[in-house]
Amino acid sequence: MEISCIVNGEKKQFKIEPDETLLNILRREGYLGVKRGCEEGNCGVCTVLMNGRPVNSCVVFGAKADGAEIITVEGLGTPENLNTLQEAFLDEGAVQCGFCTPGFLLSATALLKENPEPSREEVIEALDSNYCRCTGYVKPINAVLAAARKMRGEE
Ligand code: FES
Ligand code: FES
């Protein structure tokens, strides 16, 4: 079957198998920032935004993405031009191996769009589906709070 969707602002058409996951499709199509982890909906490394909401792409059938707007980490900043959130992750030392980072960035992107002034507890809640094996959670949480302050013009 074929699906049409918008990925990172570009119209795309993908030929897919009916039982294929969105994770498989995106990685096959070159969006390698979408990481493959548990493939059971538990670790959050495969997080993308689907119509503005974070989803674990390993448990979403690709067919569900027909007509949807998808954002992957490739749709945030670029290595030459990081966005505020990405810069904050670097500044706060919130990235070690980086495997979990795309998922964190996308969950945080959705949070800050909806709530530009989140409390620490709200950040913790927004990131609670994203696992990190290296850095832990304090630095990513601090990074999201720092990015939020910067985006509000407070730093
Ligand atoms: S790979 Fe999707 S949640 Fe772990
Ligand atoms: S930085 Fe390595 S898993 Fe999070």
Topology (SSEs and partners):
Elements: E1 2-7, E2 10-15, H1 22-28, E3 47-50, E4 53-56, E5 69-71, H2 84-91, H3 101-114, H4 120-126, H5 138-151
Helix pairs in contact: 2-5
Describe this entry's structure for a reader.
The protein has 155 residues and is α+β, with helices and mostly antiparallel strands. The protein has two domains: 2-75, Roll (Ubiquitin-like (UB roll)); 84-151, [2Fe-2S]-binding domain (DNA polymerase, domain 1), CATH 1.10.150. 32% of the residues lie in helices and 15% in strands. The chain has five helices and five strands; from the N terminus they run ββαβββαααα. A five-stranded mixed sheet has the order 2-1-5-3-4, covered by helices on one side. A hairpin with a 2-residue loop joins strand 3 and strand 4 (53-56). Helix 2 (84-91) packs across helix 5 (138-151). The longest helix is centred in the C-terminal third of the chain and has 14 residues, at 101-114. The radius of gyration is 15 Å and the shape is globular. The mean pLDDT is 97. The protein binds FE2/S2 (inorganic) cluster (FES) (2 copies). One FE2/S2 (inorganic) cluster binds at residues 36-39, 41-46, 56, 58. Residues 95-100, 132-135 line the site of one FE2/S2 (inorganic) cluster (FES).
Percent range of helical residues: 25-40%
What molecules are bound to this protein?
FE2/S2 (inorganic) cluster
Low-confidence stretches: none
Q: What is the β-strand count?
A: 5
- Percent in strands: 5-15%
Identify the overall geometry: globular
Separation, N- and C-terminal Cα atoms: 49 Å
Could you give the order of strands across the largest sheet?
Answer: 2-1-5-3-4
Judged by helices, strands and strand pairing, the structural class is alpha+beta
CATH architecture of the largest domain: Roll
CATH superfamily of the largest domain: Beta-grasp domain
| Number of H/I helices | 5
